[in-house]
Amino acid sequence: MSSSAQATRLVWNDPTWLDTLAAWLLALLWILPLAYAVWTAFHPAAYSTRFHLLAPLTLENFARAWEAAPFARYFLNTTLLVVMILVVQLVLATLAAYAFARWRFRGRDVAFALVLVQLMVMPDILLVENYKTMARLGLVDTLLAIGLPYFASAFAIFLLRQTFMGIPKELDEAARMEGAGALQTLWRVYVPLAKPVYTAFALVSVSFHWNNFLWPLIVTNSQNARPLTVGLQVFSSVDQGVDWSVITAATLMTSAPLLVAFLLFQRQFVQSFMRAGIK
Amino acid sequence: MGGPSLRAVHAWLMLLPALALLALFTHWPTLATVIDSFYSTPKGARAAVWVGLENYEAMVADPVFWKAMRNNGLFASATIPLSIALALVMALWVNERIAGRAFLRMAYFTPTVLPMIAVANIWLFFYTPQYGLLEQITGALGLPSHNWLGDPATALGAVTLVAIWKEAGFFMIFYLAALQSLNPSLREAAAIEGASRWYFFRRVQWPLLMPTTLFVLVNAFINAFRMVDHLFVLTRGGPDNASTLLLYHLYEVGFSFWDTAYAAAITVVLVVVLAGIALVQFFVFDRKVHYR
């Protein structure tokens, strides 16, 4: 009985050849636009739209793209931006989440509701007013201006608060008994235990801000502060002679760090996105 | 360890940096948007004056606004169901022992990690008349050449397809996580009972996936009103506003025409839409979906 049940189970839900075929067709369809861009970027312009097995490979398109626009500067800007936002987000959210998770005080629920407002009204749509604020502060065209609206992240506070609430109070009390203050307890007990959540949030935050476009487009106007996405758009929208080989090379170049990181750490990426979404 | 009042001081000190930034960049701008929408746009030395509902009247009379609303409605009603359905099918496949599972998962998820601007460049090339892969395929099939992004009849459909391509793999992840957390004995029981796969999906998996579906639904809805990056590359809202969306129209009014008062009125509409879905989620869905 048990072996036959085993057999039914194995056979019963296995995908049929039809499933396999459909899944592969969809996957190929899904990868097609990207594959076409990869082909064009790695071949001389003469082969950009002609498929030939023996077409010579080249990196020249990447070299030309790199020289045609200040991509080094854009890479630097994006890296600084992403790191700055992540560090500030984590510090501020950790402090706030601890206060919400472990302390009872007057006005806590109101304060938490005020935090959650940001989940509904994201900085992405308050463009006009936030631009005015940046102009008043004299911050237009700086990396700080791109980051400021995102520094306090309701999502991070919410995520960490949930995690902190799940940590046994006894651990907290034990640390206090040994004379540790609130900040020390937070640092020595809570932060290490919440590590997977930090990783998850970090991946989500980095990929969001690496890819963010509209707000940086509005608040920057020179290469000094322009991140990669805006730089890429400025570069490829200059209409003088569309050179697809160079544009696709630039496009792949700007997405490469995230894409490579994703391919190397697929499992962590997928788990992080899941963790961040489910809490 | 300190009385309640001292603890409260500590707590507020820890909240202060985050709350101050939220006040400055979320709460205040939201209020300011509402206030500004009742004033005129300041021009040079002329300060803003109270105009009552004039900005809203202008909005109601603005054909581009209605075009953007209509387009956004179509965009939402195509991207939301299609990306969710695709995500579910992808997750169901990848959850099974299917040949080449790792490759399939990678192929579905990769669009998600690319910047929308890069995605738009890739698809612009894909759609380009004569050179684009799409044209090469349709050409090989003997179909006439067609400018997908340049024709008002197909521009919106073309940008919608890009959004679905980008989103489906992202939502797949959440379905996959939910499927993997289902109790394996459910499946064994179904197998022993001789239930068909379709029956098992409809009666067991689908109901248990309901919380995930609602989570994904809310996200898809928000994205439908927030995702406009690709328009900057693909169509710039054109031709003749055929593919413009609400947030893109807001950008044009606010930062191309610098009519900030009218832009504030459009922002109010967007805030109402997004707050509306959040409230529906909070008061309707959260009560209905939790069996636990």
Low-confidence stretches of chain A: 1-10
> Main sheet of chain A?
none
User: Biggest sheet of chain B: strands, sense, closure?
Assistant: none
Helix percentage range of chain B: over 70%
**Secondary structure: number of strands of chain A:** 0
The number of distinct β-strands of chain B equals 0
Poorly predicted ranges of chain B:
none
- Note the beta-strand portion of chain B: under 5%
**Helical stretch tally of chain A:** 15
What oligomeric state best describes the polypeptide chains here? heterodimer
Strand content of chain A: under 5%
Radius of gyration of chain B: 24 Å
SS content category of chain B? mainly alpha
Helix content of chain A: over 70%
Structure characterization notes:
The complex is a heterodimer of chains A (279) and B (292). By secondary structure, chain A is an all-alpha fold. In chain A, 73% of the residues lie in helices and 0% in strands. Chain A is built from 15 helices and no strands. Chain A starts with a helix and ends with a helix. Chain B contains 13 helices and no strands. Chain B has helices at 4-36, 54-60, 63-95, 101-113, 116-127, 133-140, 152-180, 184-193, 197-208, 210-226, 229-234, 246-256, 260-288. In chain B, α7 (152-180) runs antiparallel to α10 and α10 (210-226) packs antiparallel against α13 (260-288). Chains A and B meet through α1, α2, α4, α5 and α6 of A and α1, α3, α4, α5 and α7 of B.
Topology at a glance:
The complex is a heterodimer of chains A (279) and B (292).
Chain A: H1 2-12, H2 17-41, H3 60-68, H4 71-102, H5 108-120, H6 127-137, H7 143-147, H8 154-165, H9 169-177, H10 182-193, H11 195-211, H12 214-219, H13 228-236, H14 244-264, H15 266-278
Helix pairs in contact in A: 2-14, 3-14, 4-8, 4-11, 4-13, 5-8, 9-10, 11-15, 13-14
Chain B: H1 4-36, H2 54-60, H3 63-95, H4 101-113, H5 116-127, H6 133-140, H7 152-180, H8 184-193, H9 197-208, H10 210-226, H11 229-234, H12 246-256, H13 260-288
